[in-house]
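sanity check this record:

:::
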Amino acid sequence: MTSNDELHQKIKFVQFAAGAVPGPIECFLLLRSIKTLAVRMEKHEQNSLKVAKFLAEHKKVESVFYPGLPSHPQYELARKQMRGFSGMVSFNLKGNYEDVVTFLQKLKVFELAESLGGVESLVNHPEKMTHASVPEPMRRQLGLDPT
């Protein structure tokens, strides 16, 4: 609680962006799981590199955005700044939005969802999900399109 509106707005933003204060069980689970985080992240990165390489060679993929691929425009910078290249891979399919919908419907391992905090393998469509509230001209400027 606060009577300071400026402080309230800052706290409200952080709570909206990061979530509410965790409860005791969430704190316990975090402490328990953090012990193996380094090993899990290493495997996460190895798997994403395999996925990125597979997609880069696929005939139905237009482009792949993954800093662990030498074709990425900031590959050298990423190598200097990072020990691994993360588990996030972005790509554009060849075709149109309907082709993307068909692709998403046929996935068996990845679920369509928005989350960076889960342990599931997820896929999302930024134009229609995470960035849907961004005006279309700005989405295009950012490189987000229907594919």
